[in-house]
Amino acid sequence: MADTSITIRTDSELAAKVAALAAAMDRSRNWVIEDALRHYVEAQAWQIEGIEQAKASLDRGEGIPHEQAMADLESLLSGGEEAP
Question: How far apart are the first and last CA of the chain?
């Protein structure tokens, strides 16, 4: 896969922190930024997938009604019996 350039603008404080991390890790600034971006994208994709799965579960009727969830939570918080 061919490399693609992306240009960003950031404040000098963040740029200095990236440079310091790169120096401490004996890596390039590009490596640090690409690694951070990769982790961010993976985390966001994981979260979006989870949301989509939850929405599909609700569409299948597998959810708990809000009122029931709140009643169960209130019961737990007040020291009542454990929620099912």
Answer: 51
pLDDT band, residue 24 (cuts 50/70/90): very high
Structural tokens at position 63: 């959810």
pTM of the shown model: 0.69
Q: Which residue has the tokens 């997938």?
A: 49
Q: Where does the pLDDT of residue 84 fall: very low under 50, low under 70, confident under 90, or very high at 90 and above?
A: low
Question: What stretches of the chain show up as alpha helix (H) in DSSP?
Answer: 12-25, 29-59, 66-77
Can you tell me whether residue 62 is helix, strand or coil?
coil
CA distance 17 to 9: 14
Structure tokens of 42? Answer: 């993976």
- Does residue 18 sit within a domain? yes
Structural domain for 57, as ranges: 12-77
